[in-house]
Write a structure and sequence with these properties.
Two copies of one chain form a homodimer. The first copy, chain A, is of the alpha/beta class. The first copy, chain A, folds into two domains: about 180 residues, Quinone Oxidoreductase, Chain A, domain 1 (Alpha-Beta Complex), CATH 3.90.180.10; about 130 residues, 3-Layer(aba) Sandwich (Rossmann fold). Chain A is built from eleven helices and 15 strands. In chain A, strands 1, 2, 3, 6, 7, 14 and 15 form a seven-stranded mixed β-sheet that branches. In chain A, α4 packs across α5. The longest helix of chain A is centred in the C-terminal third of the chain and has 14 residues. The two termini of chain A are about 20 Å apart. The N terminus of chain A is likely disordered. Chains A and B meet through β12, α9 and β13 of A and β12, α9 and β13 of B.
Amino acid sequence: MSQPTAAYAAHQPKDLLAPFGIDRREVGPGDVQIEIAFCGVCHTDLHFANNDWGASQYPLVPGHEVIGHVTAVGAEVKGFRAGDRAAVGCMVDSCGECEACRDDLEQYCYEGMTATYNSPTPDPGSLTFGGYSKRIVVKEEFVLRVPDNLELVGTAPLLCAGITTYSPLNHWKVGPGMRVGVVGLGGLGHMGVKFAHAMGAHTVMITTSASKGEDAKQLGADEVLLSTDTEAMAQQAGSFDFILNTIPVRHDVAPYLNLLHYNATMCVVGAVEPLDTVNAAQLVFGRKSLAGSLIGGIAETQQMLDFCGEHGITSDVETIRMDQINEAYERLVKGDVKYRFVIDMATLEE
Amino acid sequence: MSQPTAAYAAHQPKDLLAPFGIDRREVGPGDVQIEIAFCGVCHTDLHFANNDWGASQYPLVPGHEVIGHVTAVGAEVKGFRAGDRAAVGCMVDSCGECEACRDDLEQYCYEGMTATYNSPTPDPGSLTFGGYSKRIVVKEEFVLRVPDNLELVGTAPLLCAGITTYSPLNHWKVGPGMRVGVVGLGGLGHMGVKFAHAMGAHTVMITTSASKGEDAKQLGADEVLLSTDTEAMAQQAGSFDFILNTIPVRHDVAPYLNLLHYNATMCVVGAVEPLDTVNAAQLVFGRKSLAGSLIGGIAETQQMLDFCGEHGITSDVETIRMDQINEAYERLVKGDVKYRFVIDMATLEE
């Protein structure tokens, strides 16, 4: 379980702001304490700050793209020592014993994984608090190693936006000889383009916006397909071996399913809500699949970070001060960021 | 292309009934002529007879579960000779050159496969006519061999109901150690149960009807799950490695997606229409897939027939006379058949 030594709850009345030191956890024998250098701002943070999903418990400290340096380790910790770079993503614990955990898919833990924030801990009444904070204490098994060559600030978003896009591309074996579409160019989509390109696929940015298309080429897209261009969409019907769909809201998947080759899959990673009507005929005529995917397991997250180290991949970020978070949330809603806000935690006053 | 020497169009005014010998085709050098012993009655036949999909062209001769004996072969035919058992399924031709055809997936031919009935032929203005007929002429590549040990009448439905269920079970590698659900017990579902059982999977019939559940056990189901039993449905959440969904109409897939294990797929083979709202969250939390599948290629259809020969599998049928077809269609709509009507073609008067 994670617990910060300083906490921050955006968008909440003053009396709900988490006080400094709330539920502070001592560093146990298997724990790693991290001084947080940067924390990425995920759309999920805003949903929780606003209680959009009805699950928020205040005081609430968002943040699950956490990166910094180890400041202390417990006696049983073998993999980290003070001064090491370290990172924490969306999970800080899971049962460790169920089939999913044994399959290195802790995100699908049968008991429910412990999320980095707003998640109950085994201590009754306790919650986890996230990375908008000075420090965090997390059990070693859920702490990631950060390759030395990666700049910390751009690495923070890899812990959620990165693994969320890497995992399905990896699971569906994206690689050379494949034509891969990435729908949507935001925090997730821009990582999807970088990864699909680095994996050797012919990468196509699918977007409503010509200017986003141009941006995507800078990120590694080989080609741009404007989803508003019905002629181009018709011409490219059946031509995609895999599509990563990062649209974060309810939408009509029909135009994208139409782009899939027979036997191919479109994986949704942005929307976690009802989709517009799915016509079974689109799946039947071509043995197509509509799938979803949630972040990735801890081992795969480490694999993703190592892949980023080898390929020099980080997220494109805009660094903000902690006191700019509400403004950042407003810009996030408008899609006004290329492509991820990251909070410089040195700006959080203790 | 197929062309019958006798034709029958149910549910149509007398003057639209296909006359005997319409578009009769001589046996060309690469063709096989089959005297039809039996033809299965597929729900698709009824949709076409009624023009439910707006694509019917009259006169129309339904029937794509065709079985009988070879009566003549062209000079270039090597695989069949007069007297051989032979069968024809849903397709009688395809381009043979596109990627799908080269992949033995003629059902997804880029040019569109030529269906056994109501499909344009290369001769302008001509249509194919199906198996509710005395004879059919089909190019050799689309004629299937029938194992000697299988009774012809029960083998006819394998050509559509059989391959439609065998192909996804085969594609998703159903076998021992897997828990496989079959939703719906009709023409497709009863074959799904037989195949999943024969492939060695722990086979669960998922149905709204306790009596259908008992019937399914006779067909090889190891277990029955009543979809109306919310407690049982909740208990078995996440427990299925694959689900074959044979429901033939629009429905809510949510209760079935909830049954899938992480990484698992539900494949729709019955419905070719819009499904009720699909919630992406159900796919995301568990990396689940919703897929579809259409019949199978010719090579896989032969593989299925050979599998049936090895395992002694045929369809459970009710044999009817040709003049009972309208009554059979009415009973089909009510689901009043165990599990497939098959027309005895000796009862069609020439």
